[in-house]
Amino acid sequence: MNMLSLRNIGIGLGLLFLATLPLWMQHPYYINTSSQILYWAIIALGLNVLVGYAGLTSLGHAGLFAITGYTVALLVDAGFGHLTAAIAAIALTLAATAVFAVLALRATGIGFLMITLALGQIVWGIAYRWVDLTNGDNGVNLKVRPMPFGIDLSSPSAFYWATFIAFVVALVAMQLFVRSPFGATVRGTRDQPRRMNALGFNVWLIQFLAFLFSGFWCAIGGLLYIYYNQFVAPPVAGLQSSAEVLLMVISGGTGTLLGPIAGAAIVIIIKNVVSAWIERWNLVLGLIFVIIISFMPDGLVPGIRRLWRTMRGTDAAEAAAARASAKLASGQTDAKEKGGVQ
Amino acid sequence: MTVKRRTILKGLGATAGATALGMPAIAQGAPFKIGLMTVKTGPLAQGGIQMEQGLLTFLKEKNNTLTGRKIELVVADTGGNPAGAKTKAQELIERDKVNVILGPLAAFELLAITDYVRQNKTPLIAVAAAEDVTQRSANPFIIRPTATSGQCSHVMGEYATKELKKTRAATISEDFAFGYEQMSAFQRVFEDNGGKVVKKLWPPLVTPDYTPFIAQIPKNADCVFNGFAGSNPVKFMRSYADLGLKDRIPLLAGWTAMDDALLRSLGDEAIGVLSAAFYSAASEFESNKRLVAGLAKDYNVLSGGYAAGMYIGGQCVEAALAIAGDKSNDGTAFAEALHKVSLKDSPRGAFSVDSKGNAIGSVFIRRCERQGKDLVNKVIKTYDNVSQFWTYKEEDFLKNPVYSRDYPPAKNLE
Questions:
Q1: Residues 177..236 of B with a Cβ closer than 8 Å to A: which?
Q2: Which of A151-160, A330-339, B71-80, B181-190 is predicted least confidently?
Q3: What chain A residue is nearest to B42 in terms of C-alpha separation?
Q4: Which CATH fold would you assign to the domain B24-148+284-360?
Q5: Beta partners for residue B36, in sequence order
Q6: Tens-place pLDDT, residues A34-54
Q7: Which of A218, A241, A229 is closest to A93 using CA atoms?
Q8: Is the ipTM above a cut-off of 0.85?
Q9: Nearest CA of chain A to the CA of B112: how many Å?
Q10: Does B149-280+362-399 match B24-148+284-360 at the fold level?
Q11: Partner-chain contact A282 B41, CB within 8 Å
């Protein structure tokens, strides 16, 4: 209970920090960097639904947010309003997600990864080669940012707050999702798909819905991406882009609420800020990942949590509990096997 | 500002000095700030590093002072992708408050930031070749003192038909905009002069083996024009020679495909290749001699088009500072001054800037030869005052769509 409230205080302070950031961070560059961290965090949270909670590692998500970006840029370019463009983009992304899901959910594990990778590359291929539609690798410009309710988003602070609101909504949605019965069934399909099936759950449908939920947040992140960059080109849909988001999720900690956010912060800060001082910033990023994976194999956030517990001395009790439950589980299987023999 | 940087540096425990380019100088009076956007990581890094070396050579020669003003250089690595370019442009404009940006390298990087630099009234001196930046969507804040994609290819089309008397050409280039623009420009002039482009081949950007593409070149073609970029020309020319085509069908090249910076990676397979480029390391202009000597001394590399492009970019800054004078800190005034730049001596020779911001200058036809142990691109013919519109009328040129894979249509394919 104590831990929980501490965590909540931490989250509250974090949100307060983020909500007031433009007020004390005078520098537009750092405000912009924070906006980037937040919209990447939304995309990473979306991917985490699949990777962390459903146990399905996707390498094609860049294709999804690229579809959002391209749809918005092309529709606005064709003379449609921002609202129409945004709604159409989300709808199209969800449709694409459904196609991705139907095709990819025929497999799990490596198979799933390879199918999503291929699907993502198809989106990249379309962006790159269908020059009449997408302008090829010259990309598409979005002339102006939208003005929701007449608020001008062209200044760094205004855009930051808009991104922050979307981020908070995403965070709340994730928390509700994790706590909901649906969230529990998704985790169930990850841990024991056959047992879930035997219990009468439609595993395929649950995974399909989780995929859609994940795709929806990629679309929201994609919207912010295109509004922020006002430009979209094929590399956005590429494998490197997908891999970067996956790294955010894995380094921060899969299946945690705060992990993908921490991961997004690490990647963006190193890529954008540290790279100004260190030429070999890729090396630094790589080193950090190696360190995280070596010392905190389950990611930064769970790793730090464990470290915290160790320091507070609650680790022993936790470990004992874990051992006990493991014993119980193995005991059960032993019994079952014996039963089978008899 | 200064304190922040140092603190972060300390915090990172970085090996500071060497990597901390752009540390604000503690100078009397405000320095003029140049932001260089380049690519130092990934597949485009070779050209990107040359860009930095070219600019550093220029600034060193000038002792970091142009027309009496101290210059401060901030270097940003975009990583060679549009989002990185946008981020780094923001870093340079919003955080470092640079007065002018030099770069970026790739066309899509430049296209990703053109609107942004216009909004922020920050002048930019480009090397990326994307045609429309100085054509259909010309931007008053951008000049390009190098060349559009098609500028040198037009000349090669002319040279191949008028001087070499070629009539049946095949083209081969990477499957991306820079390739399309180069090949289409060549095709247009070649066919307007009575030749026929009989085959157009587009290998992907990353092609492990060019053999299947080279095998498709028709036996009765009498020249092959290639527009490869990066390190691809090295691979391509080797396969071309290995397959025995080098002696049968002469190879023509765009400026990146035979860039002087590549010469040390090439061997006999490159001898005799003709190329059209806005620059030659072998040319005798005074400033070029200084550039070539500087790069050889400090970095032990041959100077290529990217290094020259940034050296020229530095010269443009100097010239514009002289023109704009006290108003140099005003982006609009400085951009206007950049459009008035006209240099007598630059590594590419004399050139001026047209109303759309692109250079009008010489284009050289060069033949690759061996001199002693080294390969050189020897200038064999110079076309002076070449504009981005070649000999076409500007209005007529701009009425057509931008050069692409399908425009102008290839009617003579076999």
A1: 177
A2: A330-339
A3: A282
A4: Rossmann fold (3.40.50)
A5: B75, B102
A6: 999 999 999 999 999 999 999
A7: A218
A8: no
A9: 6
A10: yes
A11: yes
- Tell me whether strands B342-343 and B351-353 are parallel, antiparallel or unpaired: antiparallel
Nearest CA to B44 among B74, B12, B5, B85? B85
The end-to-end CA distance of chain A, in Å, is 45
Q: What is the torsion angle, in degrees rounded to the nearest 10, for the CA atoms of residue A312, residue A313, residue A315 and residue A316?
A: -170
Residue A170: left (phi > 0), alpha (psi -120 to 50), or beta? Answer: alpha
Mutation for testing the A interface, residue in B94, B97, B116 having most A CBs under 10 Å: B94
The amino acid at A319: A
Using an 8 Å CB-CB cutoff, list chain A residues near B91: 29, 272, 276
Spatial neighbors of B246 by CB under 8 A, at least 6 apart, are B240, B269, B272
| B136 interface with A at CB cutoff 8 Å | no
* Token pair 């010239």 in the structure block, residue: B319
A258 with A304: CB under 8 angstroms? no
Domain boundaries along the sequence of chain B: 24-148+284-360, 149-280+362-399
- CATH code, A27-298: 1.10.3470
Which fold would CATH assign to domain B149-280+362-399?
A: Rossmann fold (3.40.50)
Instruction: Enumerate the residues of chain B whose CB falls inside 8 A of the CB of residue A127.
Output: none
Amino acid at A180: S
Beta pairing class for B196-201 and B251-253: unpaired
> A270: nearest CA in chain B?
B12
User: Helix, strand or coil for residue B18?
Assistant: helix
Q: In angstroms, what separates the C-alpha of B395 from chain A's closest C-alpha? A: 23
Flag whether residue B84 sits within 8 Å of chain A, measured between CB atoms: yes
Q: At which residue do the structure tokens 């053999």 appear?
A: B211
B76 CB burial (10 A radius; 0-12, 13-18, 19+): buried
State both tokens at B238: 């080797």
- pLDDT tens digit sequence for A144-160: 888 888 888 888 899 99
Cβ under 8 Å to A: B residues 379-408 = 404-406
Per-residue model confidence as pLDDT tens digits over B228-240: 998 899 999 999 9
Whether residue A272 contacts residue B87, with contact meaning beta carbons closer than 8 Å, is answered with yes
